[in-house]
Design brief:
about 160 residues; 5-stranded antiparallel β-sheet; Beta-Lactamase
């Protein structure tokens, strides 16, 4: 199934640039030099069918879950009640939303560490494509988040300096 998504690389790369601007990823990585941002950057480079990825977690010493890494300017934004429910109830949601007047499909998946403990939320954003239904995008997002989970021994590592 992964190769099927690769057919849409060129329009998706153009749309990603239009949505986030040419320097959004670079500025985000510059202002947040943590492991979580490196994970997002690596995943974006490896998954051209994805428009955006966000990692949500509680920073050390905080009780508030926020966007700790992502593409664009949402880093630091406090999670909504809906996003917190996804994390605490360990459930996934799929929603169609418009970002900059472009239709997208957001798949919110609880983020686990290597031991399987829920440590936050991962939001994977796709562009709807002919022949690709929401169930297929859900499976694709689960593959991506599973890959992320394998790279996280515990929540604290997300905040470690990447330098």
């Amino acid at each position: 199934m992964k190769n099927y998504f690769r057919l849409f690389l060129i329009p998706l790369v153009a749309l990603t640039t239009a949505l986030s601007g040419p320097s959004a990823a670079a500025s985000s990585a510059t202002t947040t030099p943590i492991y979580a941002q490196q994970l997002v950057s690596d995943l974006m480079a490896a998954n051209q069918d994805v428009l955006a990825i966000e990692i949500h977690a509680k920073p050390p010493g905080s009780e508030t879950q926020v966007v700790v890494a992502g593409v664009g300017s949402t880093v630091g934004r406090k999670d909504t009640e809906f996003e917190l429910r996804m994390t605490t109830k360990d459930v996934t949601s799929i929603a169609t939303e418009k970002i900059a007047d472009v239709p997208t499909v957001l798949v919110r998946v609880p983020l686990h560490d290597q031991a399987g403990k829920v440590i936050g939320l991962c939001v994977v954003t796709f562009r709807p494509m002919p022949g690709i239904d929401r169930a297929m995008l859900h499976v694709r997002a689960l593959e991506i988040v599973n890959e992320v989970s394998h790279a996280i021994p515990d929540a604290a590592v997300l905040f470690r300096s990447n330098s």
